[in-house]
Give the backbone structure.
Amino acid sequence: MARKIQISVVGDGQPALEVARQAEEIGRLLAQRGAVVVCGGLGGVMDAAARGAASVGGLTVGILPSYDAATANAGIAVVIPSGMGEARNVLVVASGDAVIALPGSYGTQSEVALALKLGKKVIGVGAWGDVQGVNVVQTPAEAVELALNVAVRKLDVD
């Protein structure tokens, strides 16, 4: 069985409505293209991306900060209760072949920085353009296309 492409989606736990809509579309588009959606498993952008992927039968993975699997949002199919608190952010971004980052605060900022440190391609959706190394796009479709192109090239090399 061939390994599936995994794309990490990160962003605010309490996003603006438009950002949540973008995250849901990203999750849906990734799942429609056969990618696994990896996120932190809780609310906000994580919930929206998982909900979008699940709505079309996609596979979702949530890496939780606690040991309590019951805290995962309803769209998560594979729950990983890490017990690592915010340190689980490194697992979220390390699990992706690319990272799509929506607007967020310090937690998202840490994920962007960790992803770049790990050599991951980071695609910012209307955000993170002031961070060197982030590729900024304006739409969910552009983000998904770029992330999948990067992931396919990465898998071809591995």
Summary: The helical segments are 17-32, 45-54, 89-94, 106-117, 140-157. The longest helix spans residues 140-157.
